[in-house]
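FW: tagging you since you asked about this chain on Friday. Here's the raw sequence from the shared folder, copied in full. Didn't touch anything.
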Amino acid sequence: MKQAIVARTDLGMGRGKLAAQVAHASLSAYEDTSDRTRKQWKGEGQKKIVLKADGESELFGLADAAERRGLPNAIVRDAGHTQLEPGTVTCLAVGPGDEDEVDRVTGDLSLY
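HL: got it, structure written out here
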């Protein structure tokens, strides 16, 4: 089991902003996960990986791929309180889910 969080590289987010957006994505996808999957993922150490995306359209394409595979996923839109305009799409979380299934969606991306 694992979760992949994909963050945009084209926004120039600071480290703190990036960390917050990744956390929002992780928690949002987790909340949409079945109880059984949550328990299994938590029991296995909550494996996560953070990956790079070039822009908003890439995130939406990956979200569509996750949906087709039945994987929990969540797109994050920033509230606009600090560095970004309100509604800016920043991250996507895919999973938690079967590691092979998550990799079929995000396996070609580079580590952040």
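FW: The mean pLDDT is 97.
HL: agreed, and Residues 15-31 form the longest helix (17 residues).
FW: great, closing this out.
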